[in-house]
Amino acid sequence: MDTxxxxxxxxATALDTAPLAVTVVIGSNRxxxxxxxxxxxxxxxxxxxxxxxxxxxxVAETGDLPTTLAPxxxxxxxxxxxxxxxxxxxxxxxxxxEYNHSYPAGLKNLIDWHFTEWRAKPVALVSYGGLxxxxxxxxxxRQVFAELHAVTVRDTVSFHNAGAxxxxxxxxxxxxxxxxxxxxxxxxxxxxxxxxxDARQVRPLV
Length: 206
Fold this sequence. Notes:
The protein is α/β, with parallel strands linked by helices. 38% of the residues lie in helices and 16% in strands. It is built from seven helices and six strands. The protein has helices at 35-48, 73-79, 83-87, 105-112, 135-147, 162-165, 176-202; strands at 20-26, 52-58, 91-97, 122-128, 151-152, 157-159. Strands 1, 2, 3, 4, 5 and 6 form a six-stranded parallel sheet that branches. The longest helix has 27 residues, at 176-202. 33% of the residues are buried.
């Protein structure tokens, strides 16, 4: 008589299909910046995605955040409007220009003020610039987020010669390729966002 016990299968759990909370970080604070034009286009796509809800952190509005990383009252006050938007996010989209082959100092400062808020969460990257389209800034950011235990999604959206890509009203002259790239990137962000959210709940990163 065969007394071998048949393997048991764990019961399937219901998948969480609620929209993910995504925080869009606008990374430029330069005077006369072009970032808001690209940000308006980006936010339209994020808001239209049925699997995402959005909050915004704009580096240009974090001028009171010092670079010393000292927890002074001034820093605490500046972080009060920023940290909850990062901590409560399931995923991020970071929009960056390229300054001198890298990303802005203000964006690095915002990133460095936080650690656990980024951990085990996905980050999508959107860039703009001249001939390089901000891609060198993107590659530098991938290294930074890897150190913070965040996962950058593979696909990006980059605007080469960004100023010439938009008309005077801030609309893309030829939206077909960027729109398709944005959809692919956000779909990947949702996949990673759901996978990592489930993983954090079942087995938190130590």
